[in-house]
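dumping this here before i forget
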Amino acid sequence: MGKLTLREILNYQPIPSKFGTSGVRGLVTDLTDLEVYCLTMGALQYFESSGKLSVSAKNQNNINIPVACDLRPSSDRLVKATAKAIIDAGYQVDFQGKIPTPALTFYALQHGIASFIITGSHIPANRNGQKANRCDGEVLKTDEKGIVTHVKRVRESLFNQPVEESIFDQIGMIKQEFGVSIPESNNAAIESYQQRYQDVFSATGLKGKRFLFFQYSAVGRDMIPEILRDCGAEVIEVGRSEEFIPIDTEAISQDHLLMLKQLLLEKQDQGPFDAIISTDGDSDRPLVIAVDRGGDQVNLRFIPGDLLGIVVAEYLQADSVSVPISSNPAVQEFFANKGVQTQKTRIGSPFVIAAMQQALNVGFKRVVSWEANGGFLLGSNISVNGGLLKALPTRDAVLPILCALHAASENSISLSELLARLPKWYGKAGLIDNFPQEVSQKILEFFKPADEKTITTEFRSDQIFVKDLNDQILEKGTLSKNQSKETFAKRDLLLSVFTGELGFSQIKAINTLDGIRCFFDNDEIVHIRPSGNAPQLRVYAHARTQERADEIVSQALKEPDGILRQLQTLIG
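structure:
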């Protein structure tokens, strides 16, 4: 009888991790040490084979791999599993502590070394993830197939290993005798990240400004207030929590605003505030809320990330901007006649990074991008305020915060007055949690055109115009009778939930680049899209008033019979 293998003694069903829009995420119960070890070892092997482990070809066997994590309760264990794989691969662990994702990435890029961050960003505490970065930047979609192949090989090898030789037990955890101790963290990444902003923002740029910083469980809750103070601001910290709280800065609710307003009012006796500042869990997405005062009244205005990005791009004098398709239409409208290239991409940092690289390849010099969640990416070094702002092609929360606050301060206006200069488009986002991913995919597949080249289907009376990724017409009125009938039927199904009673007009176009994006005759836009790595169905709405955008999202999320639930019943 042969020796038992690890696969044969496992008393649970292993769940392979999958890539989402950016990195790998899953339930903590599924992210066993075994899975995290496989992810790390597979990524390292791919980086080795593709030359993306280190910029320097020398001393490949004496490399310190930077690692960091967020404040989730599961992150400490996942860091140890990651570290074990790095050590077993023949490298050393350069643990940078619990710091923002962009701080770790910037540090690794400056050293030209691949890195790993353990974070689930804004998703609930029962989930977590790992994000690997190449030595020259984020893992792109073109890398994922290669990484998955290596991860599969590692998994099969470990599963087929004799029990006596395995470092894992029957529940997929590293046996105690094989565990590793995480070295003490140093401040190198923190110092490098802070210096990036000190190089271009004056120590008095925000003098006289007062901000309330909502700490909760954001990993940058200590560092970012210090960066603001480095610019001369007064910062009052509130709301610190030792329990992990998930907050999606892309979907700030009225309840969130009421809670933050209460925290502000409790500190108001110390003086007026100009804004409330925070980030998401791993501090790569900003949260900026304008504080408007009128007599005894205090009003808060949440600044959506896509509008915040416009302010930042203008402040940096960008000549090329790339944004995901879910972004506010104000982006293209604002830059339309300013000689600035604008590109629309699928949702996720790998896609906007690819678009930035294309812009750099054709000669653009001040290249930026951002996502609807506000995470800002800088594709090139840019001269700012007489200093050099170094490129950071990954989501960053601090740069958009600083640029927006400085733009308002330098113009001697409030943040709300700064936003008033933008085109009058308003956005709102929201989501339904624990929405079955298989149902979300079924909804997407239902509306996906048969011809994969078709990105936009445009309806004009009884004609259908089919357009490609570049908005060029592929066919005009040439769909077969059955295809036309089916396409109109799909539009009519959408109109059965986007009804006139709810204030919707006729659907004039449907874009399926990334989700289902419906354009209505009255200029309203509704975009439905599943999360890439969590059982969540998101909705984005854009309208000419904030009240209408808020109303659309409310109608979509209403339980138990809102628009999204109706689609689930009709299609799922």
